Amino acid sequence: MCFVSTQTYAQWQWQNPLPQGNEISNIHFVDNITGYVVGAGGTILKTVDAGSTWQVLNSGIQDELSDIYFASENLGFAVTGYGYTSATKIIRTQDSGETWDLVFSDSLGQLLTVYFADNSVGFAGGKDGLLLKTLNGGTTWAIQNLGVQNDINRILFTNSHTGFIVGNGTTILKTNDGGSIWYDVSTGLPASLYLNSISFPTSSLGYIAGYSSGGIVVRTIDEGETWTILSEFIPSPVDLAFSSADSGIMLCYSTTALKTIDGGQNWDEIEPLFLATRLTFTDANTAYFVHGGEFYHWPVLSKTVDFGVTIDTLSSQVSLTDLKDIDFTSRSTGYILGEYWGKRELLKTTDGYHWSVILQLTNNGNPPDTLLSCIEFLNANVGYLAGSLVDNSTSTHEGIVIKTLDGGETWQSLNTGFTIDPLSIYFKNTTEGYLTGNNLDWSNWKTYVIKTLDGGLSWQEVMNDTIGDFQSVLFPTPQIGYFLKNLPPSAGYGIKIWKTLDGGNIWNSICTFDSIYSKSICFPDQNTGYMISSGSRVLKTNDGGYSWTELPNFSFPGNKVFFINKDSGYVLGYNQTWETTDGGNTWDGGNFITSNYLRDLFFFNIDTGYIVGGNGSILYMPSDYFPVSQDEITNPSESFLTVFPNPCRGSTTILYNLESPSKVTFQVFQVSGEIVKSTYIMRQPAGKYEINLEVSDLACGIYLLRIQANDKVETKKMVVIH
User: What predicted TM-score, i.e. pTM, was given to this entire model?
Assistant: First the structure.
C-alpha cells in the first residue's frame, strides 16, 4: 500500500501512522475508485485508485469533520461535528478536493451528516434537530425547521425528490418533494430508538439500523412509507450498508461485524473489524471501513473485495500506542517509548525516517506487570529504560532499570532496590546516572532521587521526602546539575529546585515557588534555564537557577519545553508548538498540528525536530536536511533503479527491481539535501515494478532520487525541465 506524504498544518509531516494520524470519522466514494475520508483536525484524505494510495488534502480548517458527500465528480461538501467543537461549519470544493472554501460558519451546534439530492439542493443535519438547506449548490444555507429536537444522524435521497432523515428518538422523516415538506413515517416502531444508519439498495426496499436496549434493524418494502422490525440483536449497530437487495454488512460496537445474504433475515459474523464505525460499498463485494470515528480515536482504514471474507488494512502503522518519550543519539538513530492498554513498546529508527518496534512488553494478567516510564540513550549502543514491576494484588512498585549495550538488540533487567515508580532518568555518562520517582503508597508516601555509579548495577539514595514528587534531574555540564520537586495540592502547590556544583556530591536548595507546579524544565547551558509551569507560564533564569522571571509574551497551555541553545527552543502544547529564537522574548507558532495529545519533542536544531504523542503519532519537520554525497550516486552497472525519461518534463517513470519482499521509500531531494517529495510503500513482493512520478510542481534543475528497499539504498540524478 502506498501513501503520499504531504505537509500537515504548520511545518510538520507524518512518519507514523501513514498516511496521517488524526482520528477519522467517515468515508464516501464518488465512483469505484475515487473516494474521500474525513476526520479530526480538518483531515481530508483522497484516493483515485480504489484505496491503493491516499493523498492528504488541505481543508483549510482545523475542526473535526464528521461527514463528506460529493454531489458530482467535482462538487463536494464536508461538515463539522463530533468531539468538543461547537462550530457549525460547511466547506465546499468545486475541483475534486484540490481546494476547499468555507461556505457556512455559525455556532448553531454540531453537524453529523450531509447529503445532496442533486447538484443544487442539499441538506446538512446535526444535533437537536438542526437541519440546514441549500438551493444553490451550497453557496448559501438556511435553517429548515423540522419541529423535532432529536439528533439527525443520517440523511439519504433515493432520487432528487425522495429523501429520508433518521435520528434519535425513533426519528424517521420522509420527503417526496425534494425536501420542502418532511413527514413522520415511524408509526408502529418502539419509541426512543437511536437510529444511526440507513441504506436503500432499491427505490422501494430500504433498511435502517439502530439500538435501544439492544440492536435493531427495520425494513421498508414500500418506498419508506411504513417500516417493520426485521431483526433484533444483542450487539448495537453503528453502521449498515447494503450492496444489493439481499446482501449487506452491519458494523456493531467494539469488534463485531455481521453480514446477511437473505435480506436481513439472518446475520453471520465476519472477520472481526476492531473499532470499525463506518462503511461504504463501491460494488457488490467491495466495501471500505473506517476504524475510529466519534468514539474511538484511531486513524485506520480497511477494505474487503470479497464481501467480508477477507479484510485488508489500507493504512500503515508501526505502533498505535501512546508515545510519550523520545531520544536521539545521532541525526539518524532515535528511540521512542510508548504504552497503551497494557502494552509497552520501544521504537527505533536508524535513518531518521522509518521506525520499527524493537521491544514489546504485554501484560498477560499475571503479576507483576512491567511499567516503563522513560528512556535515556547515551550513544549508539548504551541505553536505559526506567520503570517498575507492579503487583496490584499487594499494591507494590519495585523500581527497575532495563539496560542495553547493543542498541536495543538485547536487554538486561537491573533492580534498583527501591520501591519506586520512576518519573525521570538521566545519565551523565555510561556509569553515573540518576532516577527520580515515588512509591505510590498514599498511607506512607515517599519520593526519591537515587543514583548509580556503576551503570545501574547498584543504586544509592541521594534524597527523599514525604511530600511531593521529585520530577526531573539534569546536568547541563558534568559538574553542574539540577533536580526539581513539585508539591501536591494538599501542600498548596509549589516548586523547589536543588543544585550541585561538584558533579552531584553535594546538593543545595536554591529556590522555591509558591502556588504553582512545574510541567517541564530545560537547561541548554549552565546559566540559562526554562521552565513550563501551571497557569500557562514560561519562567526563565539567566543566573543558573537562583532567580527566575516570567516571560511576558507567553500565555499558552504548554506542557514540554526543549531548547537547543540559550536563545532557540520550542514549547509543546496538547496539539500545538511555539517557537522562539530570541530567548523567549517573542514566540511564533500556535498552529494546530494534530487532534492527538502530543507528549514529547526532540530537536537537533531550530529547523529539524520530532514530536510524538497519542495514537502512535510521530511527526517531523519537512525541511529536514539529509546529506547525499556524490559517492552515494549508484554506478549504473550496479543499479536496480531506472528513471526515464531523464531529463523529464511533467512526469517521469521509475522502474525498480526487488530481489526480496521489501518496504520501499522514494525520496526526491534538492542538491542542498532538502526533501521535496516522499512516497512510502508499505510492502511489496519480490519482482519488477513501475510507478509514475509527477514533477510538474518542481522547479527546473537537478534533483536526487533516492530509493530505499529494506536496507538497500540507491540514489540517481534526475533533471527536471519545463
Answer: 0.79
